[in-house]
Amino acid sequence: MSEQQNAQIEAPRITREGVIRVADLAKVGLAEEEIEHLQQQLSSILDNIAILSELDTAAIPATAQVIPLSNVFRPDEMTDCLSPGAVLANAPEVYEDSFKIPAVMEEDEALRMDHPAVS
Amino acid sequence: MKPYAWTIQQCHNALSRREISSVELTRAVLDRIAAVDDKVRAYLLVTPEVALAQAAAVDARRSAGEALSPLAGVPMAIKDNMCTFGTRTTCASRILHDFIPPYDATVVERLRAAGAVFVGKANMDEFAMGSSCENSGFFPTHNPWALDRVPGGSSGGSGAAVAAGEAIYALGSDTGGSVRLPASFCGMVGLKPTYGRVSRYGLVAYASSLDQIGPLTRDVTDCALVMNAIAGHDRRDSTSVDTPVPDYTAALGGDVRGLRVGVPAEYFGDAVEPGVRASIDGALRVLEGLGATVAETSLPHTRYAIASYYIIAPAEASANLARYDGMKYGLSVRGADIWDTYCRTREEGFGAEVKRRIMLGTYALSAGYYDAYYLQAQKTRTLIKQDFDRAFEKYDVLVTPVSPTVAFRLGEKTDDPLAMYLSDVCTVTVNQAGIPGLSVPCGFADGLPVGMQLLAPAFEEETLLRVARAFERASDFRRLAPLGDEGS
């Protein structure tokens, strides 16, 4: 077997950078050794999943779910729902009747949204 | 026989005749848990106060002359991915280690209304991702038939609890085999109903187009009794189907004369252990002896089912688990900013398998890979479903093993995710096609239980129960695990 063929076979299906990029999309922090592990494991899993490319599915529709249902509608009526206290009972941080979360935007960014004229 | 070893029907009869009270029955099960659960570890949480209060309430209703459900006063276990109002529900994940649901899952609400007694929350693979119960974020469960073996997953705590006498029955959930596999490994009856038959409201979502709740019981009659209580439409789950729920026990008396049984060759490959094959062959002879005709058939796309499953399920999981962000409930590890908070919370909160599936699903859905992986998997799903549609034109039921092997050893597959995924080779097709599947004990190999999988077209649970009950009557592999010296 030539070196080139060998490299082709051994090349992992997902690169280290690929793992880091996907972890960023998934918002999952990974320790250094997890990155290495996942690169190997995901590559090996994807190698096995590649069997799907054998199938000619050009004329096959996709199945997202199996039961013959379409959108389900109901009258827009008030019904009982959870109290704010019950909804907030498991919250890590609460401010009055709200979830308290870290800032999503920088302060000047938020200011621009409140006052579009400010630039 | 000790009360903890009874079936639901035996409990109901004894309770109705006032031979035992629900409080006494519940104490018997709680005592059994105290005696054996340090070895089996089926429970993440045991709830004696809840159980004894429910039992006392049922006893009071019975004394008042109320007509009660067959489930009334009978102690049971709930897999820890179903929300129980006021009782911690962790999904065996550190990310939900302190989550107290403010509402009941629909199945829990229905059981409560039936007077069920909740003895505890059963262990499972974290977020139901696994085939051995070793992915629990807290501790693995042991198979009561052989403590060095796995109970199967992901509903391993549910299967082990019922087999060990620690619950009369249990609820599990099945996304790729998670009720049927532990039922098979623990020698119990397990049913994955048709997609849409049982409400998923309040079931912590793993893969929404595949998830379905089902019973794990000691015999087929009990399975029908639990289905009577949990099946049916629920406006809070828009994928639950509004078709009438039959009385499932009515199907139990039927015979199998003239039943056409198909045996798909693809499920009997080299990976199937000789002892498993021999048990299934023996079961097929029993069905023939009862008047069924048995013929070999083919489901040609079976070999692609693991691959399509391990795209579709992780893809849906990656979307469903995006909700664990450390903001509204569950673990929150606050970082430098909101993005850092997300990443740290999820790094600390999720175990290795959950991270692996989130990563795999995110990858399969990401730009440039969507068509090659996710779309191709969904099209493969169509082909798998068409295989079943064609087979059911000629056969009333299909018979396969639930697993190619009996329960494997703890630690045997934990280092090799792919080997673990292959444990689901006989079961993942069923969720992708949406049809019902039932595991019924059909023999032993090396002293460990073997399960036969019966499959029928969508909404034909009655056929499965009728065939399984006829087989059970003619064979009888019903027994609890011979754990220690307390045998029944």
Query: According to CATH, what is the topology of one domain in chain A?
Result: Histone, subunit A
Query: What structural class should be given to the helix and strand makeup of chain A?
Result: mainly alpha
Query: How many helices of chain B?
Result: 15
Sequence of strands across the biggest β-sheet of chain B: 1-3-2-4-6-5-10-11-9-7-8
DSSP helix fraction of chain B: 25-40%
Total number of strands of chain B: 11
Q: Tell me, briefly, the overall form of chain B.
A: globular
Question: What is the level-2 CATH architecture name of one domain in chain B?
Answer: Alpha-Beta Complex
Q: Any low-confidence stretches of chain A, pLDDT <50, length ≥5?
A: 1-9
Topology:
The complex is a heterodimer of chains A (119) and B (488).
Chain A: H1 3-10, H2 16-26, H3 32-49, H4 84-88, E1 94-95, E2 98-99, H5 107-114
Antiparallel strand pairs in A: 1-2
Helix pairs in contact in A: 2-3
Chain B: H1 8-16, H2 22-40, E1 43-46, H3 48-63, E2 75-79, H4 106-113, E3 117-122, H5 156-163, E4 169-173, H6 180-186, E5 189-192, E6 213-217, H7 220-230, E7 260-264, H8 274-289, E8 293-297, H9 305-320, H10 338-349, H11 352-365, H12 371-394, E9 397-401, H13 417-421, H14 428-433, E10 437-445, E11 448-455, H15 461-475
Describe this structure in words.
The complex is a heterodimer of chains A (119) and B (488). Chain A is mainly alpha-helical. Among the domains of chain A are: 3-54, Histone, subunit A, CATH 1.10.20; 84-114, no CATH class. Chain A has helices at residues 3-10, 16-26, 32-49, 84-88, 107-114, and strands at 94-95, 98-99. In chain A, strands 1-2 form a two-stranded antiparallel sheet. In chain A, a hairpin with a 2-residue loop joins strand 1 and strand 2. Chain A is extended and about 55 Å long. By secondary structure, chain B is an alpha/beta fold. Chain B contains 15 helices and eleven strands. The termini of chain B are close together. Chain B has helices spanning 8-16, 22-40, 48-63, 106-113, 156-163, 180-186, 220-230, 274-289, 305-320, 338-349, 352-365, 371-394, 417-421, 428-433, 461-475, and strands at residues 43-46, 75-79, 117-122, 169-173, 189-192, 213-217, 260-264, 293-297, 397-401, 437-445, 448-455. In chain B, strands 1-3-2-4-6-5-10-11-9-7-8 form an eleven-stranded mixed beta sheet, with helices on both faces. In chain B, strand 2 (75-79), helix 4 and strand 3 (117-122) form a beta-alpha-beta unit. Chain B has a domain at 3-257: Amidase signature (AS) domain (Amidase signature (AS) enzymes, Alpha-Beta Complex). At the A-B interface, helix 2 and helix 3 of A face helix 9, helix 10, helix 11, helix 12 and helix 13 of B.
